[in-house]
Amino acid sequence: MTSKPTVGLVIDPWDFPFNGTVVSTRRFVAALSNQFDFKILKTSNAPAQIATNEVYFPKLSIPGANGIIDQMQAPLARPNRALLETVVADCDLIHVQYPFLLAHQAIRTARLLGKPVISSFHVQPENIQRNLRLNQAFVTRSLYRLFVSQFYQVSDRVIAPSEFAKMLLTQHGVSKPIDVVSNGITPDFFQRKRRQSRSDHFEILSVGRLAQEKQQALLLRAAAQSQYRAKIHVTLAGTGPAAAQLKDLAVKLGVRATIGRVTDDQLYALYETADLFVQCSRVELEGMSALEAMAVGCPTLLNRAETSALSELIQDPIGAFTDQTPNMLRQKLDALLSNSDARQFLADRNRAFALTRRHEASTAQLASLYRRLLEDHADQRGEQSISKVGKAS
Known about the structure:
The protein is an alpha/beta fold. It has 15 helices and 13 strands.
């Protein structure tokens, strides 16, 4: 092993940087590139120009599901055994970020070649179910069993982005060591300055994939029923399969809304000017966009769901609602829009909490995990070598 170890990152949709997993992974790669070399195992809709540290695998075609996969901008790779053997042989460690066919074959190859494996829990089975409209409980259990048996239990260590995510893994049978490593908030969010709100206008912001499990339709309906309806403008920043449906709904409800992809600069400006950030999702393993809003100093209104880590981010009951209670979101929305002091109270509490999730700390934690796993693996190989020598003598 060289002084600068090589980490093979399995992340199929690397070329789609609005994907939360991709955003997080790109930030970690940039922060750790002075300590580790990275090989990116990926796919895309078309084999574009490949960087020197990237390895392209053909896109997997799944009849009947290709449309939804394309809308989600999360293409899956078709593994190539010979190519994987060559790539994994050149790596010191394999880190799985996207747990699908490419990762499954990468783990098997790593095991055959004696390479350590670490897997991150970024894809919640509920994400898959809700987008495919398969919400039955037995489907949830089956998907968890599949993920646990094929990825997490055959890894040396597992990374969860929140205590909630760790609890889910433990409940579903993961017995391998689980480390909680936040995706972290990069310094540029803390450096942003909030702008003065307008008294005649309310900007409501939600950021995330436009998909069924994110439940942005709840926000549009609450805005339509609000006593401040005439003053509200809603921004749903993101892309996804529900985009057209949400745009149609906003028109039908008469809600002024901007829905679609934004640039990084536009996103910063939205965080700086939003009167309220609202997250309605029922499926979150950490809630990166909510954390970013908190770091900038946005007051937040978050869904307290039993299938989401957003509950960990709620700093006061005034900033929480449950989608299981009819009209609660509208009531909480109106209460906060009526009270600028309450919004400022939440903003201050949010920023203080966000400081505990700094990206620098997460980066140091991940680097430590990499080195610890590499050292443990080297020690095990040394013990095996000594054992073989002993038997031979």
